[in-house]
Design brief:
Blueprint (H helix, E strand, L loop, with lengths): L16 H14 L8 E4 L5 E7 L2 E7 L5 E8 L5 E7 L3 H14 L5
Antiparallel strand pairs: 1-2, 2-3, 3-4, 4-5
């Protein structure tokens, strides 16, 4: 099934198929073997929301399409500590930075 305009209570833009393919290609092509798979969802603006939830951490990345700008936020639900970062996912180094952020906050099995 595809996401159509108005998918969210009459609001919400459909995802552009070419942009979704770009995101999928990058996620599949760069995703590290040691990280858990994230939850994925469309955003009302036609972008992509990615989230990892582990223990007391919530790490979210919202990718704006077609700009490929990515707002990353980490939240520690125990302490309330929040960090934010802005990435440009046209730069492959920023995909590495996104995954490093996830890796640094999640408790991964040895």
């Amino acid at each position: 099934a595809s996401v159509q305009d108005g998918w969210m209570e009459g609001q919400g833009r459909a995802l552009d198929k070419d942009q979704l393919a770009w995101a999928g290609d990058h996620l599949v092509g760069t995703f590290p073997d040691d990280l858990p798979y994230p939850h994925l969802a469309p955003t009302p603006e036609g972008g992509l929301f990615i989230e990892w939830i582990e223990s007391h951490w919530r790490i979210s990345a919202e990718i704006a399409l077609p700009s490929h700008r990515c707002e990353v936020q980490t939240v520690n639900t125990r302490t309330g500590a929040v960090t934010d970062a802005d990435l440009n996912l046209d730069d492959n180094g920023d995909w590495v930075a996104l995954y490093a952020c996830v890796r640094n906050h999640l408790v991964l099995p040895a």
